[in-house]
Each structure stands twice: as structure tokens, then as C-alpha cells.
């Protein structure tokens, strides 16, 4: 038994892997300190979309807060969040908040770059979308189904050195995409021409995003952070063929169109 | 109102200056009053290719700074009354050029000329940016090899995003000129073919200039290669000028020349 466990200890088979990952997270951006009003307004939001807030990890941003939050204020805030099903995991704000974060066992993140967070629509997600996602994952922030998602359409060639980003939606390119260029979209990417540059779909963590192209000659394709480079791509049979790339589990699957 | 033409490529050594001299001369020989501007401040070459290096007094930077006027600075070509050269400064660097200064000179030239040919320096930095910024049309000079094609692709991206026309929501008319093309090497698979390059860059083909001894000879003699109408390169440039002016001319020199029986017997 002991020898057995010693052997186990010496076994160099890795027990874990360190991986980088990107996931979208709901940010509660505090604008003013008013715990009672916060409770009421949060309750209203939760009523609109109870599923959305169930066990949802949130980041509490204090950047926009006009005056400083103290420990009692923070404890009150955390309790209100937890009462409504939210799971605060981190604070975001200046280094001054470090003691506060440590006292409440939260991670302190440095202030984000302005304007990167998008306002979140918290209407109930469509049942279909929920069913597609494994229950263990927090629901990805989805734009309200009632609103059309902005799609970016590019009709001219995307040249080497150019970068095109479709924030919050899909990207459609009706021209060749040259080597050395980069396409990014929060949603799907469609290329009706040869795709020779890089294409990154679901850059904010949408694992359902896909890449469609008429001729797969890409330098790199990526869906929600999982990627394949040309070195791997050119070995598979759909190189230079019409194909789609989607995430299946943890790896990218390339299938013919 | 002159038409401003930029000869650009991204990569160096592909034949921008040779092309500027040939196209500019070709336009002048067809009766258009043309000026060729050397934007390669610090690495002046156009005057050598045009054979007027001994007559340079003032240069582009002097003109921008107001040290000289247009009449003093422009060098008249000896072969054509319609052709003028605006040489670059050899002692300064690209920072001596300013957007306002370049615009002022181009506006002055626009009043009297039909065509302004801007010979761009290599790269995508300031000199190249100023050369293409005010252009109406661009001739992208590319060699049939991958690094040149990629740099041209990058340059096309810059043309469509950082030029005055792009900022006004218009497009610069783009032309592809393939130089140093060797059909024999294409056949043996050593060189990209015309269709390979067209496929990658997807812009209209203005011309294909074959690799030719005549180009080197012309450069060293200071005579634009288009004047050598016996050479294949000279004829190919003439065709390109015709196409630039809107005529439909079939492409030549795309096939490898078959060696005749005698040449094969006695060696060519």
C-alpha cells in the first residue's frame, strides 16, 4: 500500500494543467452608495430574469463610485448581492481597496480600461440558448433577443496589417482576407472569399461562435480562445476548402460546408 | 486640375523609381504635361534614372521651405518638353517633409500640369505616407515573390485607410504592376505567376514588365527604359501607359519564349 502510494507520488504524469482562459463576466458597476436603493433596484432586475441571476459570478466595480466604500458598506452590498443569487468574486478599483478586498476574501482587480464593458441586457435568455449551454457554466451575457445584434459587413479586401472588429455581433466579409490581417468578432465570422489572415470568433467568450469561410487558408483560427495555427490547419483535408470551424468541447472542429 | 498618381510598393528594390521614370516619360511623350516628384528624401535616385543629376540646384525640401520657387526647382527633361522632374533632397531626411508643405506644392503643380507622378520611398512610414496621401490613383509595383506581394498588400491597406480620399470616404483607384517577371521561372515553379499575384492582391492588372537587361542598361545610362522601344521592358511599359489612359491593350511577354531550332543547336 505504502510502496504503491510512493510510486504514485513519483509518477510524473501531470495531475493538472495550467491554462489561460477568457470568460465573460457580469460587472456590477456601482455609481453611488445607497444600499437601500441598490437592494430595491437589484430586486427589480432579478424579477425580470430570475434564471440569469442564479449563481452568477459577478465583479463589483468601484471605479465610478464617487466616494469611498467602507467595510460596513461593502458587507451590506455583498449580502444584498448574495440574497439575490449573485456570487461576488472580485472587486475592481484602485489599490486603496486592497485591505477591504482582503477582509472580505475577494480578489482585487486593477481598474479596467475605460469603455470596454458593454451594458448588459438582463431580459430572460431564450430557453433554447439556455439548453445549449452546460448547466455548470454561467450563462454568457447575451444581448436581448428582441434587439437585433449589430452585424458588421465589410465589402472591400481586408489587407495585411488591417484589423477589423465586430463588437457585440457578427462579422461578414465579402472580399478576400489577406495574410497578415486580423478579423475579430464577439459572434460569428463569415468570409465569402479566401480566408488567409487570422480569424477570432467569440473573442468575449461566446463558445457557440463559429467561423465560416469559402477557402480555409488562415494563419490562425480561434473560437472563444481555443485556437489552431496554419501549421495544424494545413495538415487537415479541408485546407483551401469551404469549411466551418466550431468549438466542440475543448477543441476546434473543422467541418466541410 | 492635375491627376495625382503615386508609384508605391511597400518593399524596396522592386522598381518604383524605374516605373515612375517610365510611366512619367510615357505620359509626357503622349502629350500630357507631367511632373515626376521624388519623395525619397535622403536617398535621391530619380535624377540618376532620368539622367538629370548634373542639373539639380534646388530640391523638394527647398521648395517646401520656401527657399526656392517652382520655376527654379523644377528640372526640365531634355527629351520631352512636357516632362519635369522635382528632385528629392539628398542631405535631409523624411522629417523635412510636412503634410501642409506637400499639399502646397501639389496644389501649385496642379494648376499647370496634367499628371503629377509621385515616386514613393519604400516602407509605410512618413515619406511613403506623404507620397500617397493626396493621390487619385496608385500604381502598386510588385515583384512575383511572396514578401513583395505581402508588402504590397499592406500598402493597399494603407491606401484604403490612410489617404485623403479614404478619409473623405472615396477610394484611390488601384493598379497592379508586376515587374521583373520571368515566364521561364514561373513555368519551372520558382516564381509566382500573374494569376497567383492577382489572386492574392485582387486589384486590376495594369501591366507585366518582363525581367530584362534593358532596365539595368537604361538606369545606368540615365534614359527611362520606356524610351528603348526595341526592348521588351520598354514595350511593356508603353502598353501599361496606354492602359492607364484607358485603352484596352492585350498583355504581352507572359509566355516563355520558345528557343528556335538554330538557337538550340548553336546555343542561345
Please supply descriptive tags for the structure shown above.
heterodimer; A: 257 residues; alpha/beta; Alpha-Beta Plaits; six-stranded mixed β-sheet; five-stranded mixed β-sheet; 15 strands; B: 268 residues; Rossmann fold; 13 helices; 16% strand
Total strand count of chain A, please? 15
Structural class determined from secondary elements of chain A? alpha/beta
How many domains make up the coordinates of chain A?
2
> Beta-strand percentage of chain B?
15-25%
Across the major sheet of chain B, the strand order is: 3-4-2-5-1-6-7-8
The CATH topology of chain B is given as Rossmann fold
Oligomer: heterodimer
Number of helices of chain A: 7
Helix/strand order of chain B: EHEHHHEEHEHEHHEHHEHHH
How many angstroms does the end-to-end distance of chain A come to?
55 Å
The first-to-last residue Cα distance of chain B is: 50 Å
> Which architecture of chain B would the CATH scheme give at its second level?
3-Layer(aba) Sandwich
Q: How much of the residues of chain A is beta strand, in percent?
A: 25-35%
Tally of structural domains of chain B: 1
CATH topology of the largest domain in chain A: Pectate Lyase C-like
Binding site for ATP (chain B): 11-18
Keywords (chain B): ATP-binding, Cell cycle, Cell division, Nucleotide-binding, Septation
GO biological process, one term (chain B): division septum assembly
Domain CobQ/CobB/MinD/ParA nucleotide binding (chain B): 5-225
